[in-house]
Design a protein that fits this description.
Layout: H1 3-18, E1 24-35, E2 45-61, E3 66-71, E4 75-81, H2 95-106, E5 114-120, H3 130-146, H4 152-167, H5 174-181, E6 186-191, E7 197-201, E8 209-215, H6 223-241, H7 251-256, H8 258-261, H9 263-287, H10 291-307, H11 314-325, E9 330-334, E10 341-347, H12 351-364, E11 371-375, E12 382-383
Parallel strand pairs: 3-5
Antiparallel strand pairs: 1-2, 1-12, 2-5, 2-6, 3-4, 6-7, 8-10, 8-11, 9-10
The structure holds alpha-D-galactopyranose (GLA).
Alpha-D-galactopyranose binds next to α5.
Length: 385
């Protein structure tokens, strides 16, 4: 379906539910992280890109303070008075739009009531940031309808705040920033401490390469508790090392403190500091369009996440191994892990082989059917109509 057709569809879904036309239709994408995993809550470096899948939000302002939200997948309306939404957790999918309305108000935007209809084609819970897409689509819509001046990075921060405080998920800033700032044919090199961002060319077609996502479709049931546990281990490591965050430690610092850290915390910290170094190298490889140099960094990232950080899974490992057997230059899990997606970089003429070998690897390990699809670095959030 073309973008035009999807916009018309969500606008007519809005008319059916709200009984009037939307003021506009906005869009925000999901993301794939190329490299820099579990570094964003350590003040470290990340290198994500946005994908063509995301969330559409048709929105109209109201004259009162009510927020009425519908989701074409989840139903609705979910209604709330803006003044009732506070710094407390809320349940269900509507916590996302409600949370971002609250966080924008906290950021100084005079958010008025609104009717909101959202629709998404990011598989939820797949590690492609369906939640950031939802937060940012509604966030940019409410920000632009109420006060056009809020910077994109400030909308990303509000989206993160909504997720942390109202949804109750302790995520970092990577996903929301990628959704707001990404550019077509680029990866976003983000320093999560300073929020300095640089667009780094990721022009794979020029080299007859293709980025491929492998969605394991495996449940991420364990993810929430394990994510918080990893964060806590990183904080402990920083405390033992006497630094504000693991961003401030080198691999040599971590090695020198191995005894004091203890085996598990040592390996968690080693992942983070080596991953930060891999991101910096990956950025320099991409600036030179040197995919041969990028590939071993992606592979090293996966191994480190599997062995040191222990957030991979049998399905993610099968995806990575299958992709390599099929001719990919490199593959790695992407996102928080424990299921979700892997990303592969493959010669364009080997994409079919990659898909075949991944399916074979899944069948051999008695795993469910994966979903395999090409992706290209896309633009970030924007108004479409
Ligand atoms: C999730 C979080 C991000 C980041 C990744 C791991 O996607 O939302 O902030 O921590 O996991 O890199």
């Amino acid at each position: 379906m073309s973008t035009r057709e999807r916009v018309d569809e969500v606008a007519s879904a809005f008319r059916e539910r709200a009984g009037r036309a939307p003021d506009g239709v906005w869009w925000a994408p999901g993301r794939v992280n190329l490299i820099g995993e579990h570094t964003d809550y350590n003040d470290g470096f990340v290198l994500p890109f946005a994908i063509q899948r995301g969330t559409l939000a048709a929105v109209a302002r109201r004259d009162d303070d009510r927020l009425r939200c519908w989701s074409r997948e989840e139903g609705g309306p979910e209604e709330a008075e803006l003044a009732e939404i506070g710094a407390a957790r809320r349940d269900g999918w509507a916590a996302y739009p409600q949370g971002v309305a609250w966080a924008l108000r906290e950021a100084g935007v005079a958010v008025a009531g609104a009717d909101v209809v959202v629709e998404s084609d990011v598989p939820s819970g797949s590690g492609l940031s369906s939640s950031a897409a939802l937060l940012c689509a509604v966030g940019i819509a409410l920000a632009e309808l109420n006060d056009g001046r809020l910077a994109r990075s400030a909308i990303a921060r509000a989206a993160q705040r909504a997720e942390n405080v109202v949804v109750g998920v302790p995520s970092g800033i990577m996903d929301q920033t990628a959704s707001m700032l990404a550019r077509e044919q680029h990866a976003l090199f983000l320093d999560t401490r300073t929020l300095d961002a640089e667009q780094v060319p990721l022009e794979v077609e020029d080299r007859e390469l293709q980025l491929v996502v492998i969605n394991t479709r495996a449940s991420r049931r364990l993810a929430a508790g394990a994510y918080a546990e990893r964060r806590a281990a990183c904080e402990e490591a920083a405390r033992v090392l006497g630094v504000p965050a693991l961003r401030d430690a080198t691999p040599a610092d971590v090695d020198a403190a191995a005894g004091a850290l203890g085996d598990v915390v040592y390996r968690r910290a080693r992942h983070v500091v080596t991953e930060n170094a891999r991101v910096l190298e990956a950025v320099s490889a991409l600036r030179e369009r040197d995919f041969g140099r990028l590939a071993p960094l992606l592979e090293g990232s996966h191994r480190s996440l599997r062995d040191d950080y222990e957030v991979s899974s049998p399905a993610l490992d099968a995806a990575v191994e299958g992709a390599r057997t099929g001719g990919a230059l490199a593959a790695r899990m992407t996102g928080a892990g424990f299921g979700g997606c892997a990303v592969a970089l493959a010669p364009a003429d080997r994409v079919r082989d990659v898909e075949r070998e991944v399916r074979a690897a899944f069948a051999a390990a008695a795993l469910g059917e994966p979903e395999v699809f090409p992706v290209a670095p896309a633009d970030g959030a924007r108004r479409l109509a």
